[in-house]
Amino acid sequence: MAEVEDTLKRIQGINGVIGTIVVNAEGIPIKTTLDNSTTVQYAGLLHQLTMKARSTVRDIDPQNDLTFLRIRSKKHEIMVSTDKEYLLIVIQNPAE
Amino acid sequence: MADRSDLKAELERKKQRLAQIREEKKRREEERKKKESEMLQRTENVSEDSDLDRKRRETEALLQSIGISPEPPLVPTPMSPSSQSVSPPSETGSQESIDGGTVGRYRTLQWDTDPSALQLLADSVHGCRMQRLGASKIVQIDFMPKELVTYCKETQTPVASDQPEEEEDEELSVTKSEPVPQQLEEESSQEAEEVHPRELTNEEKEQIVHSEDFLFFFDRSIRVMERVLAEDTDIFFDYSGRDMQDKEGDMQAGSNLSFNRHFYDEHWSKHRVVTSLDWSPQYPELLVASYNTNEDAPHEPDGVVLVWNMKFKKMTPEYIFHCQSSVMSVGFAQFHPNLVIGGTYSGQIALWDNRSHRRTPVQRTPLSATAHTHPVYCVNVVGTQNANNLITVSTDGKMCSWSLDMLSQPQESMELIYNKSKPVAVTCMAFPASDVNNYVVGSEEGTVYTASRHGSKAGIGEMFDGHQGPVTGISCHNAVGPVDFSHLFTTSSFDWTVKLWSTKHNKPLYSFEDNADYVYDVMWSPVHPALFATVDGNGRLDLWNLNNYTEVPSASVTVEGGCALNRVRWASGGREVAVGDSEGRVWIYDVGEQLAVPHTDDWSKFARTLMEIRANRGDGEEEGVLELPA
């Protein structure tokens, strides 16, 4: 769908955004704006982390579920929006 | 007789038959016993109505397999009490209790679910077929609940490790080894999955992207994500400054001075030195750069001026202007947005207009003695919208003032002579903010002079001595704020130093000695009172914030390629710095917010810094300092 492409391009064009990745439930990247090796690395690691975070949330309250994960490091900010099936990962440089 | 023999034979036959029958009977008995015991065992196994029973049978089986026959010495002892009492057979639990009267040879430990009645059926060792039922000692064995043993991938240990020897441990380890191979399976399946991502084909990806599910997810997530991205406030900012101290190294290098883009044109910029830069006052994204001759291309025009646009990503200049002689200095005409003025090596002033389609100048000053005959290194438009003049100074010390409408002859001209003896070879010139009469010039000998255009003291005023080499750049403080610092100016020179002066003192206030090569240019920030930029021959761009340190630059970056940097110019907003190098490239650097944007107290802080500087210097050298009348 062209809208998806356009939207991703628009996100990518926002000042400070380094990359955008869409990952499916198994951790396989579907769409990305980064190079392949980086994408695979980010997708795999963040998928595992999201699974762990989700299980944490659900252990505390089984009715609850993870919706958004935001990781702030010294150099970047990684934002993961998640639902049952997919992950949307955006990596941003927050200093700008 | 025959009867007797017959009878005898018959008797014998009968005896034999009886014996046979007895034997058969015995055999059958035995078989039956066997069968029965088997059946009993089977019935036991079949009707498992509790884990406990199952476990007991397993233990039995294990014990038997080892060879420990289930002959607990307890058997005889409970026999006696049991022989007396006949415990009610609890039919609920024991499956076979009574019918196994003839269980026989095989001792089986019959565990009853009702622990109150433990029935040990003795066998026919004693030849006793009577079943002795009775209460017996209760031996309770607790089985620990099955441990749920989980392993993380990292702590996975190989299965074929030590098998403990105890029985219970054996049983437990049997159960343990079951989850372990499961873990191994999961691992390998995970690895298989990790290999898998690379195999998702484009068609599959397209399919997923077009699916309804995905679109729904995407729509929702993108909305949130855009909101998050749009918020660019730094929620982690620590006002106490502790964070800044920790990551000062990183912050300095990283966000304080970051490369934005560079401008370079293959045809026009190659092999030319950037001689001058200027930002447009009307359109902050326009930058004009002048270049000198390209020795490799003698048929190309010697002087090139390019107007670059920061706003768009295109790599080609907006306007290209030529001139027959190298352009040494260039500037946008302050009050005429369409005009670009250039001073050339031959002494001519060229005027280009971007309304015309010509690349050559629309107006040029004549090559005559009334105008300049030496290279013009400084051009400046001063004044107001209605009354403005173009001031140009050449290296023979001549200052001319022109009107932009008529460049055929200067409105006025003046020789800059110091002490009525020698003309000043001017290399750079600067006007303080909002001053149209007085200005400062730097010379080839390393001295700096103030000069004024009109008035009783027209011409060279004071001399400032301090540099040991030609002065390459001069810049007057032009940040406007609560405190007025317009008497300050900085100079850069071939003697590797940058000096800070005040027009009130003829000796430098401070000397910045951090460079290791000729410093080619210096410029104050247009917004920050304590910030200025310098460039040197090593390709280094330094930003000095005098409120932070006066010994070292607050931010520094070396431009790629290691070319000498010839010019530096701040953009009018004070957030970007343009640097021109000796290979024809113009580099644009973004200055981070922390450094570029002044705080309201920066002015007072700078005033204090100045006082400190003066105090320090006052301690050092007192002689030779002349307090100059303002």
From TrEMBL, chain A:
Protein location: Cytoplasm, Cytoskeleton
Main location: cytoplasm
Keywords, comma-separated and alphabetical: Cytoplasm, Cytoskeleton, Dynein, Microtubule, Motor protein, Transport
Domain Roadblock/LAMTOR2: 4-92
SMART domains tied to this protein: Robl_LC7
An example molecular function term from Gene Ontology annotations: dynein intermediate chain binding
GO biological process: microtubule-based movement
Superkingdom, natural source: Eukaryota
GO cellular component, one term: microtubule
Pfam families: Robl_LC7
Gene3D superfamilies noted in UniProt: Dynein light chain 2a, cytoplasmic
Family recorded in the similarity comment: Belongs to the GAMAD family.
Role description: Acts as one of several non-catalytic accessory components of the cytoplasmic dynein 1 complex that are thought to be involved in linking dynein to cargos and to adapter proteins that regulate dynein function. Cytoplasmic dynein 1 acts as a motor for the intracellular retrograde motility of vesicles and organelles along microtubules.
PANTHER family the record matches: DYNEIN LIGHT CHAIN ROADBLOCK (PTHR10779)
Protein name per UniProt: Dynein light chain roadblock
Automatic annotation (TrEMBL), chain B:
Pfam families for the chain: Dynein_IC2 (PF11540), WD40 (PF00400)
Subcellular compartments: Cytoplasm, Cytoskeleton
Low complexity composition-biased segments: 80-90
Keyword Repeat attributed: yes
Region: Disordered, residue numbers: 1-103, 156-200
SUPFAM superfamilies xrefs: WD40 repeat-like
Entry annotated with the keyword Repeat: yes
UniProt keyword list: Cytoplasm, Cytoskeleton, Repeat, WD repeat
Compositional bias (Basic and acidic residues): 1-13, 20-41
Biased composition (Acidic residues): 163-172
Compositionally biased intervals (Pro residues): 70-79
Protein name: Cytoplasmic dynein 1 intermediate chain 1-like
Organism in which the protein naturally occurs: Cirrhinus molitorella
